[in-house]
């Protein structure tokens, strides 16, 4: 994966980690409002989705775009389909 995508994914995952830690702390408070917890969970999901998108883009550029030149198109497509849970 290209370095720029690696760094971008790492940043997004750090954001997700921060939100997740916040959720854990919130749940220690019996007075926490459920909607606040749900908002934080949604923020984690968004950060994870963003990181996945960055990693996917890097994979497409670094591996998928050059698969036919290497002769491993079928393997690359199958690998990607499995990773994305499509059959």
Question: Can you lay out the helices and strands and say which pair or pack?
Answer:
Layout: H1 3-27, H2 34-64, H3 67-70, H4 73-83
Helix pairs in contact: 1-2
Describe this structure in words.
The structure is a single chain. The protein is mainly alpha-helical. Helix content is 82%, strand content 0%. It has 4 helices and no strands. The chain has helices at 3-27, 34-64, 67-70, 73-83. It is elongated, with a radius of gyration of 18 Å. The two termini are 24 Å apart. It is found in: Cytoplasm. One of its GO terms (molecular function) is DNA binding.
The CATH class label is: Mainly Alpha
Strand content: under 5%
- Helix-strand pattern: HHHH
Supply the CATH superfamily name: Metal-sensitive repressor, helix protomer
Percent of residues in helices: over 70%
First-to-last CA distance: 24 Å
DSSP summary: helix tally? 4
Q: In the CATH scheme, what's the topology name?
A: Methane Monooxygenase Hydroxylase, Chain G, domain 1
Give the rounded overall mean pLDDT: 89
Organism: Deinococcus proteolyticus (strain ATCC 35074 / DSM 20540 / JCM 6276 / NBRC 101906 / NCIMB 13154 / VKM Ac-1939 / CCM 2703 / MRP)
Subunit structure: Homodimer.
Pfam families: Trns_repr_metal (PF02583)
GO cellular component, one term: cytoplasm
